[in-house]
Amino acid sequence: MDVEWSGNWVAGRLGIELVGDGELRELLGLALRRNPKRAHLLVSNVLGKHVPQRPSVVHGVGYELGERVRNLLGEAEAGRAVVLGYAETATGLGHAVADGLGVAPYLHSTRRPVAGVAQAGGFEEAHSHATSHLLLPEDPDLLNAAADGSPLVLVDDEFSTGNTVLNTIRALHARYPRDRYVIVALVDMRSEADQGRLTEFAEEIGARVDLVVRARGTVRLPDGVLEKGRSLVARHDAQDAGLAGDAAGEPPAPSRPVPVRVALDWPAGVPDGGRHGFTPVHRAALEAALPAMGARIADALGDARRVLVLGFEELMYAPLRLATALEESTTAEVRYSTTTRSPVLAVDDPGYAIRSRLVFPAHDDPADGPGDRYAYNVAGAGFDAVVAVVDSTADTPALHAPDGLLARLAGHTDQVLLAVVPSYVPPAASDRGVPTSSDRAVPTASHRQEAAMLPEPLRGPAFSSYAADDVGWLLQDLSDTPLEAPTEEREEAIQSGGAHYAESLPVEYQPSPQYQELFKTALDTSAARIARAVGTVTETVLAERGPRPVLVSLARAGTPVGVLMRRWAQRRHGLDLPHYAVSIVRGRGIDANALRWLAAHHDPADVVFVDGWTGKGAITRELAVALEEFDGFNPEIAVLADPGGCVRTYGTREDFLIPSACLNSTVSGLISRTVLRSDLVGPHDFHGAKFYRELADSDVSGPFLDTVAARFDEVADAVDAEAKELLAADRAPTWEGWAAVERISEEYGIHDVNLVKPGVGETTRVLLRRVPWKILAERGAGADLDHVRLLAEQRGVPVEEVEGLPYTCVGLIHPKYTRGATGADGTAVTAR
Fold first, then answer.
1. What confidence tier does 718 reach under pLDDT thresholds 50, 70, 90?
2. Closest CA to 193 of 168, 214, 210, 218
3. Which residue of 418, 451, 618, 724 pairs with 600 in a disulfide if CB–CB is 3.0 to 4.6 A?
4. Cα–Cα distance measured from residue 535 to residue 529, given in angstroms and rounded to the nearest whole number
């Protein structure tokens, strides 16, 4: 059956003719630009920009052109060649050409300035809606042919007038002269008048210039076509607006899918693309990692049968290769395309190349300011899943906003996945730009670039047993580093001043069968109460810090709470709240690099810090002091339980058993408490933690979350009432807990508030990982203290019932300790 050519609609109405090689119409369709400089757009069917295509076809076309260039140059010259692609349309094509050459480094022009990276050149694109191109190679000698006479291979999607490519060569030749250039394009569409310019140009600069193309032809334009095109676009604007599919600013309906983040585990040190150069070494590392990344995406897609992998403007190659890997990992039908800056008319007609469009705001803080972006031929195309791939610079609140790309996609597919590739900034630029500890974090584009040297958050299942979209850990993985020390040795070092508590880890507590059963009982009896507190604190946060807060849990006690708050927002409001976990260390402050990463990817004003409970409020005070060095962050903490009266945002002020306090890593995603030690954590590192994979058989992190979340619906009405009451109440901190701790410290002759740990959660921690002296329990306290009594019995610690405690219990740390522990320099310390 004959398929209608996707240029018929434009050709018939404007009198445009496309003539040339036999496969030209298979390669190209026609559409109308919204551009005063050119009426028509040649729409490639194999480029992967406007028309979804099989990723193997897109990569294969470029790869085959690269092989032809290698044959043209010969092995010796091909081994010295450098490939240069054009932003935004040809970045992926140029990369594929470099793959076909096999041994060539690759660079593409960019419209994204990067602070600290020297500009090696630039040029203007006359007919484009966005003209300025920058060349920002990490290696300043990449374009310099003086040393080895390397040929330069320039890749664009089409060679039309030749002006853009020839102007680029002219500018580069004046700065980096060489003997040979090769121009590569999918199609050569020069008019007869332009045919002879290439030879003349080569003679002008005194170099050889070759042309390698897939097909040849030309476009014949009648007189007045520009005016006719403008008029035709104007007549179809109303229809085009309807095809956008979403009213501007309209939030997604509750039935629309909530985007799910999939962790790629992108290989360390491999750039996201060729903006600063991409070497054969990078290529080899990426090729080795692609099968596993493709399999992870395939697993996340489940039963999806027709899948689109959607790249992002200049980020074409990374999504393309993820798509080719996905093709090999699934039996589903896979297509690939990318979003674009180009404004094009959409007409739902089989004889027109752009059948539909989605419109959404730019989400990467572009240097030329805000504006609309587009995804073509996605709406109405029948995809039951879309995998949106962006770089971390573009993983911003605007991406997740109600009118953002993810919400637009959710209106046209059953499943939306988000995969984020870490944005690469050359280390030399980062070294010049990374702020010191006294600098203030500012959420600007340049700050994103400064923080780009930091790695992307760790995610499960590679790090933690939580799902990848539950939480991103802004930590470094120290799983292979010996950090555990006997409890008594740690206690001596901490109290003698020889080591800080965050410089080592206690030996991970292994619960007895009796204790595990106690945990299950406690979870069953308290799940509804936990669910109410989760709902109440989440609704309070949404009301006061909405509409889309960024949850940042204080690792690790805050992490299960942050996951539950995120799930409440998903269940009750259809919101996909970002959630991260960061380290804060008493006496050392919060992880400054984690704050820089957050400021680079989100508005600090949207960040809401989350913890499990308050004791005497030490961490509350610690956070407030630490954030004085960083602009824009709100130091208030949202907690599940605030028995100490230390915060304004809480689910309850009762001191009751929170089952996640009963255990250590096995209820917190198998993650240790955080570690800060100078020999392990450098100036540009996140704080560290361990992933106890070996404890998977004892892990109850998932059951804890699922059990509490299963009670959300039944407590919804109570939560609405409690949240409304709290929002109208005076919630000013009373600091009642701090006063009680000071009193107990003096009453029991301790004289150190750091050795007094109030509340059920803190008392449990004392019993699990410190050297407890005694437990003070409120007289008549019931089942909330069953696990405390059991732990105290196992460790031989007396439980003393007292009157008048503002808490259910208080743990007192023993003032005696033994020798040896790990100090700041990694060596053993002894008692002084």
1. very high
2. 218
3. 451
4. 10
